[in-house]
Amino acid sequence: MAYVEDHEVSHVVDSHAGQYMPREFVATWGEFLYPQDAKMMLDVASCAAGPEDAFYCEAWCDIANNAEVRIPYGDETLIFTIHENEGIYLVRDGVEWCDECEWFKSADCDCPHV
Q: Which of 27, 28, 32 is nearest to 49 (CA)?
């Protein structure tokens, strides 16, 4: 997990996991999801149960669209959003999307926004 602290965008679950990507994601990141309320805990449980759970897809959509990942890091808390595109990524709060690149803006981008 330590590698996400050093990156703006981190690939945390590979697309090869297929329909099991949400299950793999919550196995590692579930405890860091916010808000930590009853609804989130139900969604995490559904994803942890796997695609056989009746609410698996709905639960994953709720997590991916509404949750953030908060990781304690020294005296601060790093905040990430979840992005799914041929895998699952954690994106540092404040990193912007580039319409030209169709990816997140970075120092390596050759688009005019840099």
A: 27
pTM: 0.85
Q: Residue 81 is encoded by which pair of tokens?
A: 């959003």
Please state, for a pLDDT cut of 90, what percent of the chain lies above it.
65
pLDDT of residue 112: 62
Domain segments of the chain: what residues?
Answer: 2-104
- Amino acid making up residue 114: V
Q: What are the residues whose beta carbons fall under 8 Å from the beta carbon of 23, sequence distance 6 or more?
A: 17, 47, 48, 49, 50, 51
Given a contact cutoff of 8 angstroms between Cβ atoms, the answer to whether 81 and 65 are in contact is: no
**Maximum Cα interatomic distance, the chain, rounded to a whole number of Å:** 46
